[in-house]
Amino acid sequence: MVKHDEKKLAQEIYKQIGGTSNVHSLINCMTRVRIDIKDPSKVNDDKVKQINGVLGTVEEDTYQIILGPGLAAKVANEMGDIANIAVGEEDTPSEDQALFSKDTDNLDQLAAENKAAHKNKHNPQTPLKKVLRSIASIFIPLIPAFVGAGIIGGIASVFSNLLVAGTISGEAWENLVLVTGIIQRGLFAYLNIYVGINAAKVFKATEGLGGIIGGVVYLTGITPEAPLPNIFTGEPLSANQGGIIGVILAVWILSLLEKQLRKVVPNSIDIIVTPTISLLVVGLATIFLIMPLAGFVSINLVGMITWILGVGGAFAGFVLGSLFLPMVMFGLHQVLTPIHVTMIEQTGSTQLLPILAMAGAGQVGAAFALLVRARKNKQLTTMIKGALPVGILGIGEPLIYAVTLPLGKPFITACIGGGIGGAVIGLFGGVGASAIGPSGVALIPLIVNNLWWAYVLGLLAAYAGGFVATYFFGVPKEAMEPSVVSL
Description:
Radius of gyration: 24 Å
Oligomer: single chain
Order of helices and strands: HEEHEEHHHHHHHHHHHHHHHHH
Structural class: mainly alpha
Number of strands: 4
Helix content: 55-70%
Distance between the termini: 19 Å
Strand content: under 5%
Shape: globular
Largest sheet: 4 strands, antiparallel
Strand order of the largest sheet: 1-2-4-3
């Protein structure tokens, strides 16, 4: 594994993106650093791509530099330290800077106009992109929690099955299962609150109020003996009805109400009036309107997906597995996160994730084929060797942006491999994961109902399908030449 000096890498990135003064905010996800650029005209994208350690870039609503898992977080923290910006927070002016804000209003406005013009010209901000950006920003900070709690839950499930089977016994093992289960439920039992806080941050509402709205969905204190009615059906409301879909919608409404209240409420009583009215109005709306409506949507959405997988079988698996890489490329995969979580809340597992994970396995197979066919291309093979280990573990973006997508054909054949793996999973049916976050080999411990073997067969099929399709049809001639291929 290649070692990188994170501080030097951060300095080199700043040099090519216009310096620290050109950065409005920083956020890191599992594989990339997302940078909100003030003046995009100062960014030298070609030079950024040439920096040793950078696997690729994506220009969307933010400028995204792909570095791979682990390295992305370290470089983001270094960039934050250098620019004195808290990662995940906006670069807001200090009090001293604010004294001169009137003199710099025109400059700030010009910078904003330059940024808006660049985005409108090169990457129009459609409503869909704004929604996807919001969803991504809500769930990206939770991904490490999903991974850690999910794997711990998988370990607890394995030991629990061994206890039931009599393979292991004793109070120590029982306590281990109990404790690991407690750790896992620390996330999933209170997920709505975490989502509410993050959603409030994204929508510019008060984070504490967002957490309370997330907690309202649990209907704490309501008992079966004294239920609250669903105003649409007359049936009792159930705790967590609507789940995170309802929480996100409610917090968005909270943000709109807060902004309007602060326009009319005097500053002297804002701290009392605004949160009180916001919580009362949005809390009541959440209980009596949003929960019933979001519950109806989420139940039917999960039912529709389950029906498609049950009826479509192998065909549905092939379509989903083959289309997921393009969804990742365009950032559309973020919209699936709340669907996964909703399925887990309602059924105990998501049957979508194991099928979609096959897309990454198809890429792994394609990468192995490129290693064999393009072994004379040292730059390409070095890039593949660096990206393959994390690809096997389910982090596919380094392979997408550094290998298969730039070469073209391997991206298509990798999609075919993913479709073949998805078809195998769909053929067996019922293969679900108890948590989201991991993919590839790392997802095996999270497969429920002892169907891990079906998932492994799907992985092997995707590896083989991606390898064969790429070996015979997906290797460009220029990739096999000894000369260096520009990636």
